[in-house]
Structure to design on (329 residues):
């Protein structure tokens, strides 16, 4: 099992849990939660430097990008142009090519705008980016993203930050069957069992932010997510028994007194 | 230094007065920006950070300086 790593764009990662770095109370809390989670990839946002108040701590001072892979995202982008601009800037910070594309369509539910997402995936792939794509759980659209050059398909479980868990297992299973690309559940998980379920239906990884950062005890939830992902993955690889509506005793009948 | 020697530019949406003929590098030093941790756009074009010493800022230049922060 030690060699059962997550491979994205030919890069190997020892953890199948990807965590977000937003919504924590402090940078200290964020970096400690990441450490406990065992994650080797963290998502980060690209924003303006505060030129007036430079007393605020920098993310890079707490999370070393040489030890943990930064996955720049396009959170907050509602058009392809905004997303492309953000990721080109991210690449310029220090050569980041592995990115998370997220083009939102609507402010209330934060669902992805798949037309803009598809367009952006095509352009970014041509520019040499390795694009991990936040998308809805539509198998047809997932196929189109794959054809457009995506490096990973990342369907939502439920709306971002909702904590509802996987709402459409059937679609996720269909996407699993049709693609060899890394399939990562991104957004909507609430507790560790949600992560296990994602792994048990064959996902290659999960991306969690709010469920850890906003848990009453973020460090404990980070640990729970770590083990849930490992458990779910092992369960998937072990191969579950067939479901049966009748009982089947576990003790032999032979030798009954 | 009088006002005549200064020009107005915009940095991250805020107006800023800088000394005429300042380079982009001068500006980043003045703002204490760690160059290896940011990306820079000048008038919507991404700047190659190796060339910032050769870029002289002009009146009404619009500069965006971004970095990574926590996000999901």
């Amino acid at each position: 099992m030690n060699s059962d790593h997550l491979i994205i764009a030919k890069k190997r990662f020892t953890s199948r849990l990807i965590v977000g770095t937003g919504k924590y109370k402090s940078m200290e809390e964020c970096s400690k939660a990441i450490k406990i989670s065992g994650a080797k990839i963290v998502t980060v946002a690209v924003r303006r430097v505060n030129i007036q108040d430079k007393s605020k701590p920098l993310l890079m001072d707490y999370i070393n990008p040489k030890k943990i892979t930064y996955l720049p995202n396009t959170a907050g982008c509602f058009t392809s142009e905004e997303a492309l601009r953000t990721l080109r800037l991210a690449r310029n910070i220090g050569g980041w090519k592995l990115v998370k594309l997220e083009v939102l369509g609507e402010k209330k539910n934060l669902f992805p705008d798949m037309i803009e997402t598809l367009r952006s995936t095509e352009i970014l792939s041509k520019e040499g980016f390795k694009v991990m794509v936040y998308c809805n759980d539509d198998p047809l659209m997932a196929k189109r993203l794959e054809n457009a050059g995506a490096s990973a398909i990342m369907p939502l479980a439920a709306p971002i930050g909702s904590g509802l868990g996987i709402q459409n297992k059937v679609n996720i299973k269909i996407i699993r069957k049709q693609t060899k690309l890394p399939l990562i559940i991104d957004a909507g998980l609430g507790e560790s069992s949600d992560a296990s379920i994602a792994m048990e239906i064959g996902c290659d990884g999960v991306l969690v932010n709010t469920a850890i950062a906003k848990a009453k005890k973020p460090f404990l939830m980070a640990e729970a997510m770590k083990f849930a992902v490992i458990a779910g993955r092992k369960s998937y690889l072990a191969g579950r028994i067939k479901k049966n509506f009748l009982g089947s005793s576990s003790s032999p009948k032979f030798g009954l007194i | 230094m009088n006002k005549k020697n200064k020009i107005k530019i915009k940095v991250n949406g805020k107006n800023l007065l800088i000394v005429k003929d300042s380079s982009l590098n001068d500006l980043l030093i003045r703002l204490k920006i760690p160059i290896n941790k940011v990306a820079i756009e000048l008038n919507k074009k991404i700047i190659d950070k190796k060339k910032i010493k050769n870029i002289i800022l002009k009146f009404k230049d619009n500069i965006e300086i971004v970095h990574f922060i926590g996000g999901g």
Chain B touches chain A through 26 residues (CB under 8 Å). The domain at 3-66 of chain B is CATH 3.10.20.30 (Ubiquitin-like (UB roll)). Chain B has a mean pLDDT of 92. Chain B is about 10% helix and 40% strand.
